[in-house]
From TrEMBL:
InterPro entries: rRNA_ssu_MeTfrase_G, SAM-dependent_MTases_sf. It holds the Pfam family GidB. It is found in: Cytoplasm. S-adenosyl-L-methionine binds at G80, L85, V131, E132, R148. It comes from Polynucleobacter brandtiae. Keywords: Cytoplasm, Methyltransferase, rRNA processing, S-adenosyl-L-methionine, Transferase. This is Ribosomal RNA small subunit methyltransferase G.
C-alpha cells in the first residue's frame, strides 16, 4: 500500500505523522490483511477500505484524547482489542502512551503478539484474558479505557469502572446508535465530558467519541 493512499485520509485529520509513523501503520495493515486471509480477524477487506475504516477510524480519536490525557505516560486499556483496533495505531503514533490490549480470543492475541514484535512496539502489552479477569487482577490501574465496537455502552462502562484509577476516563467509540445507548446509562453514576463527532475523510459514516468519567470512584462501590 502506498503512502499516497494513506494520505488520502490522514492528511485531513490534522495529525502531524512522521514518515516512520506512516511506514509502521502501513506495515500493520499489511500484516492484518495477511493474517485475515487465514484467521478471519475482521470482516473488512480491501486496501482502501481498510485505511478508512480501520486505521483512520482508530487514529481520528487522537486529537480529542490528547486534550484529556495530559499526563506524560498515561496507561490505557483497550477492551476487546480484536485485531488491535484502535490500540495499535494509537501506540504507533503515541509512543509515550502505554496501552494494554485485552482480548480473550487466542487467534487474535496471537496476531497482536506478532504485530508487537514485528513493529517493535515496546509501549504495548497483550493480555489473553477476559476483561472481568483483568479487572480482578489489576483493579484501578488505568488512566483511561477505550473500545471500538466491543459491546453496548452501558455494559462497556460497567466493565471499565473497576479498571479505572480515581479520575480515570472512558473513551467510547460509537456510531449512529450512540444516543440510544446513552439513554440506558445512569448519569447519576457517570459524567459525560464530551461528545465529539469524528470525521473520516471521504466516507459518509457517522462516528462519535464519547468521553465519560465516573461520578463515583470504584472504591466507593
Amino acid at each position: 500500500m502506498s503512502s499516497e493512499l494513506m494520505a488520502l485520509g490522514i492528511e485531513n485529520i490534522g495529525l502531524d505523522l512522521s514518515s516512520s509513523n506512516i511506514a509502521d501503520l502501513d506495515l500493520f495493515l499489511q500484516e492484518m490483511g495477511r493474517w485475515n486471509r487465514v484467521h478471519n480477524l475482521t470482516a473488512i477487506e480491501g486496501a482502501e477500505e481498510s485505511v478508512r475504516l480501520h486505521l483512520i477510524d482508530s487514529i481520528t480519536v487522537l486529537p480529542v484524547m490528547r486534550q484529556f490525557l495530559t499526563a506524560a505516560n498515561p496507561k490505557i486499556a483497550d477492551l476487546g482489542s480484536g485485531g488491535g483496533l484502535p490500540a495499535i495505531p494509537i501506540a504507533i503514533v503515541q509512543p509515550t502512551w502505554h496501552l494494554t490490549l485485552i482480548e480473550a480470543v487466542r487467534k487474535k492475541t496471537a496476531f497482536l503478539q506478532h504485530v508487537r514484535g514485528r513493529l517493535a512496539l515496546k509501549n504495548i502489552e497483550v493480555l489473553s484474558e477476559r476483561v472481568e479477569a483483568v479487572a480482578q487482577s489489576r483493579p484501578r490501574q488505568f488512566d483511561a479505557v477505550i473500545s471500538r465496537a466491543f459491546t453496548n455502552l452501558n455494559h462497556f462502562l460497567d466493565l471499565s469502572l473497576p479498571l479505572l484509577k480515581p479520575g480515570g476516563l472512558v473513551f467510547a467509540m460509537k456510531a449512529k446508535r450512540a444516543d440510544e445507548e446513552l439513554l440506558e446509562v445512569s448519569m447519576s453514576n457517570w459524567t459525560l465530558l464530551a461528545d465529539e463527532a469524528l470525521h473520516i475523510p471521504l466516507l459518509a459514516v457517522e462516528r462519535r467519541l464519547l468521553v465519560l468519567s465516573p461520578a463515583i470512584t470504584p472504591s466507593t462501590l
